[in-house]
Amino acid sequence: MNCDEFLQILDERLNGDPPPSGWSDHAAACPRCALALRLERALKAAPRWAERPRLSAQARAEVIRQVGAAPLYWRRFATLAEESAATALAAAGIAAVAIYAGPALWAATVPEEARRALVPYLRPLSEGFRAAALSFEPLLRQGWGVALLGLTAFVVLFAAALSTRVLSPGRNA
Amino acid sequence: MEPLPGEKSWILKFQSGDASAFVAIMNHYEPYLLGLLTRLTGDRARAEDLCQETFLKALKGLPSFRLDSSLKTWLFRIAHNAVTDQARGAGPGTDSLDEREEGGLQARSTAPDPQARLEEAQVRRAIEEAMAHLPQSQREVLHLFYWDELSVGEIAGALRMPEGSVKTLLFRGRHGLRGRVLDLLPEVTS
């Protein structure tokens, strides 16, 4: 048996296959393969010799302080609310960019010919989108309107996130 | 890794309002998670911060945790994500082997005679040093497989990757580790 064969069997053995008879004799004659075998044994024994560190008292105290900080029942909703608020903010940002910078970006990045070819297909879509966006415009002129729109987006996303969480089995964040 | 006795009942207790159940879960998993995070960051202080962050995220998610999932896999996934997120923000972590392992490695030798104990300690030190030079993905998979005794399927679940990829990383990691250890201990092989 040569070193390559020995190491190949070493790998296969780690997958649960039993080694052939006389396999370890090679290690007795070859220091490199003997070391490879010792290495594998040391790795297999790692859980016994590994250091198991502990958090500092300060770090543990901080986690434990948080454990007692809020009523548990509401925490699941608090997490969802946080996620929904972040998504609502991101969605609002994307929508704002699309509305205000979209036409300029479109004109700057897409060549004239391509634009002309795409117009018949995109126009109905953009007109629908524009009409929907314009219907919100009066609302956006009011301070309370922005808040109301944001709250609506948040509620819709919260409901969607809650439904997904409830309906998808085995999903953990 | 020893499972936490009565794990599901601890989760249920926590979900029904007993906050002390979380401390029991934390006590059990803390050394494993901190061990992994120390391995991945090479920096004990940073690992502690990430471990704290992992538990705080777990605290948020545990109220809606589903019992048909594995808590162990879930916690390792949070820890993995914490490291990945931090690496994205702060650049690659230090890969140096610091003084963290030396005392622990030498103190737990099980070999019968002093010479064998010395050699065993040498191999372990070489393993630790070689691990620090492996790519993070290989280091993480090797640590989860050997140090934390997760199965290939559990690692795949924790890292959200196919089992085939875990096996490939294990294979490459083992080979990289072997080559490096053989280089680090030339006197043993001569």
Provide a quick synopsis of the model.
The complex is a heterodimer of chains A (173) and B (190). With 173 residues, chain A is mainly alpha-helical.
Write the layout of secondary structure elements.
The complex is a heterodimer of chains A (173) and B (190).
Chain A: H1 3-14, H2 25-29, H3 31-44, H4 46-49, H5 57-67, H6 72-109, H7 112-141, H8 143-167
Helix pairs in contact in A: 1-3, 6-8, 7-8
Chain B: H1 7-15, H2 20-41, H3 44-61, H4 71-90, H5 102-107, H6 114-132, H7 136-147, H8 152-159, H9 163-184, H10 186-189
Biggest β-sheet description of chain A: none
| CATH class call of the largest domain in chain B | Mainly Alpha
Classify the beta-strand content of chain B into a percent band.
Answer: under 5%
> How does the overall form of chain A come out from the CA principal axes?
elongated
Most extensive chain interface and residues per partner: A-B, 46 and 60 residues
Going by helix content, strand content and strand pairing, the class of chain A is mainly alpha
Helical region count of chain B? 10
**Rough shape of chain B?**
elongated
- State the distance separating the first and last CA atoms of chain A: 51 Å
Unreliably modeled segments of chain B: 91-109
CATH topology of the largest domain in chain B: Arc Repressor Mutant, subunit A
Order of helices and strands of chain A: HHHHHHHH
Mean pLDDT of chain B: 83
Quickly count the domains of chain B.
2
